[in-house]
Amino acid sequence: MVAASLVISAIGDEATVGHAIEQGAAGYLLKDSRPREVIAGIVAVLSGGAPISPGVASYLLRRLRNPSRPTPPAANNPLEALTPREVEVLRALTRGYSYEEAGELLGISKNTIGQHIKQIYSKLAVNSRSEAVFQAIQAGWLSSDGR
């Protein structure tokens, strides 16, 4: 009997998820899933299911919908879909600024920063600041010191 594996990770980018699934992971949950979702995921894997966090399911669906068509550049690197302002906001996040401090730095309101952050999270299919910053650093867009 082969043991099923469930990946629970802070990283939800297309390459990482795809690699885990290709290597035999039975499911993939983001680490910020609620405890009951993790428990349900474990039960599902043990029952032959394949739990996937909603934040990473879009990558898999895109692959399944168009398996022979190459993915557009923005899908290969979701950071490409960010606007210049969103990149500035992401850089402020990398430097550890609060929403208020980032707003002051960029000359916009704290609420506008929040709206940009929602867009960034949506475009990158992440659920936290650390995931967004990690993707940017991994892609070489930002150094770990925020430059």
Number of helices: 8
Q: Give the DSSP E fraction (strand runs of 2 or more residues).
A: 5-15%
Give the class from helix and strand content and strand pairing: mainly alpha
Largest sheet, spatial ordering of strands = 1-2
Residue-averaged pLDDT, rounded? 79
Number of strands: 2
The percent of residues in helical segments reads: 55-70%
Radius of gyration (CA) equals: 17 Å
**Helix and strand element order:** EHEHHHHHHH
Number of domains: 2
Query: What is the 3D form?
Result: elongated
Sheet of most strands: 2 strands, parallel
Which regions have little confidence, pLDDT < 50, spanning 5+ residues?
70-75
Compute the separation of the termini in Å. Answer: 49 Å
What does this structure look like?
This protein is mainly α. It folds into two domains: 6-71, no CATH class; 75-138, Arc Repressor Mutant, subunit A (Orthogonal Bundle), CATH 1.10.10.10. The protein is 55% helix and 5% strand. It has helices at 14-22, 35-46, 54-65, 73-76, 84-94, 99-106, 110-124, 129-138; strands at 6-9, 27-30. α5 packs across α6 (99-106) and α5 (84-94) packs across α8. It starts with 5 loop residues before the first strand and ends in a 9-residue tail after the last helix.
